[in-house]
Each structure stands twice: as C-alpha cells, then as structure tokens.
Amino acid sequence: MSQANALAGYAGVARAPFLLLPVTLVANGAAAQAYVGGFSWIHTSLAAIGLVAAHAAVNVKNEVIDFETGLDFATVRTPFSGGSGTLPAGALSVGKAKGFFWLNLLVAALVAVALVAQVGWPLVPIIAAGLFFTVCYSPYLTRTGIGEVAAGLGLGLLPVLGAAVAQDGMVSSVAVAAGVPGFFMTFNLLLLNELPDEEADRAGGRCNLVLLLGRRGAARLYLLAAGLCPLSIAAGVALGMLPWSCLFAMAPVLALVPAIRWALGDTAAAVPLPALGGNVMWNLGTNALLAAGFVAARWI
Length: 300
Known about the structure:
- The protein is an all-alpha fold.
- Helices cover 70% and strands 0% of the residues.
- It has helices at 3-13, 20-35, 41-68, 94-119, 124-136, 147-168, 173-194, 198-203, 209-238, 257-264, 273-299.
C-alpha cells in the first residue's frame, strides 16, 4: 500500500471531513471566554488538538465496531451517514485502524493532562466526561437509547464549556449559554444521520431514538430540537449572557429548510441528501457565527 493510500485510509476511518466540527466548537468556547476576559492561544490550540483527536478516536472505533459486527455491509452509504466504507473496501486493515484509535486516544489524554496542569482542577470533570463518551460511545451508548444525548453532550455542550474553562480555569455563565445550542445541534446531527441506517442499526443490535420512537416520532423530536437551538441563543441574549451580536448565529437555521420539509411531510420517505448536508452546515455555521459574535462584541 502506498503512503498516499495509507493516509487516505486513516483519513477515511477518522471521517476527516467531519473533524471541522470540533474546531468550530473550540472556537465558540474560546471566544466566549475571551468575551469575559480570559484567552490563551496556546490553550486554545491544545484544546483543538485534543478534541479533534477525541472525535477521530470515536469515529475510528465506530468504524471498527460496525465492520466487525457486519453492520457496515448492511448500510446504504451517503456522504453523511453509513460509515466511510474504508474497512470493507480493504483500504486499511482492522489492526491498523485499532492502533489509530489508541493513538488518537493517547493524544487526547496527553492534551488533557497538559491542560489540567496549566489551568487546574475545574477542567477535570469536563475532561473525565469527555473521555468517558470517547471510550464508551460506540460499544455501549449507541445500544442503550442515549446515544443522541451522549453526542449532544460529548460533542456539543461539553467541548464548548471545556474550551472556555481551558482559557483561564474559570466557569462562566456565558460559556454555558454558548454551549447549549451545540447540544441541540449535535443531538440533531446524529438523529437525522441515523434515519438512513434504520434497518441496519436494528439488525446490528443498536438502540437509538429512531428505533425507539419510529421515523415520525424521531422527525417530531428533530423539529423540537431544531427550534430550541435558535431559541436558546435568543434566550441567552435576552438574559444578558450572550451579546446581541450572537443573534446572527440564528441565521444558519435556514439551512434546515430541506430537513424541516422532510420532517413535516412523508417521514417514511428517504431523508434527502440536501437535508443531511444542510444539517451539517447548520452545525458548523452556528458555532462559527457564535464565535464571531463574541469577537465582534469584544473587540469591534
């Protein structure tokens, strides 16, 4: 296998295109803390490296489990769901994928230790929860019906809060308010992506909200979370926890128009690709504009 093919295999199991999400989460949290006075480029960079590594570890572990359980061979892949297909295609061996998982987990753990040494114990419970979700998400939490909530916490609220606390060791209400939209968005990111894999997940022994609530129930829950995200931003501004410039972060909800149309229509139909893509853009755009809103309020 050539070096280029090997790198492509590692990028495939890590789901590299989706690793932009943790970067936007860190930007959001760091900017939120900068807004109230604390900021460090070094700590922000470390937080980004650690969160990207943790997210990559989750993705790799998920790919390995889906391959070994046979679920990978039952999914209908889209650019946003169904796995990368790297392991079934033989682009990377399972052994190398497992080694890559441990490497990413080690990087995340070393970054965690370094940040705790720099800013102190307030980071410990956040990091401990993050490592728990990293290790337990794929093998356990996806089979207990709480995978979506775990994703909303582990790749939504907690990373924003953690990136903020990593700046100066302080927990602020501003950081909490900045992280709440991330919970709803990542919750919905997973929920919508599970719909194309409904039958494969059922056959593979998973237990998620799509299987528990059915497609119509999951669609209604999706609409609720989609509405609560911009409402949480507006509430944060109204309560004085977010600056008014963060209201612009409500705009990316427009990317959900295809998903909302599907959720209000025939939910037995396949989720259209524009809905899945818009769901991703909503996540990235909202976090990025929240970060920009804090920067604008602090320095412009």
